[in-house]
Amino acid sequence: MRRSLLSSFQTGRPMRAPTTLDGCTDWSVDYLKYQVLQGEPVRLKCALFYGYIRANYSQAQSVGLSLMWYRSSGLGHSDFEEPISFDGVRMSKEEDAIWFRPADLQDVGLYSCVLR
Hints:
The protein has 116 residues and is mainly beta. It is built from one helix and nine strands; from the N terminus they run E-E-E-E-E-H-E-E-E-E.
């Protein structure tokens, strides 16, 4: 089987110190681009748990927060409206990451994670 390169997986990453307004924290993001081979497994880690961020996944869960993932297949960032439904087979949510087993052309897009 010939494998194609999927180059449009992107996920948000914190860029500066967070600001808080009305009890919500704005982490301000930039984007990481992943280059992926079609047919290979891929793991996208939620950027909220990188480096200097004050909480880890277990702490977030212990205070009742849920990690939600959103996907946009368009170029704009305004269509992150519906959370991703995971089938648990080829695409699954495992703690602070999404797994694609295997990645497919239909997976290309922008991915964002949110704690609620």
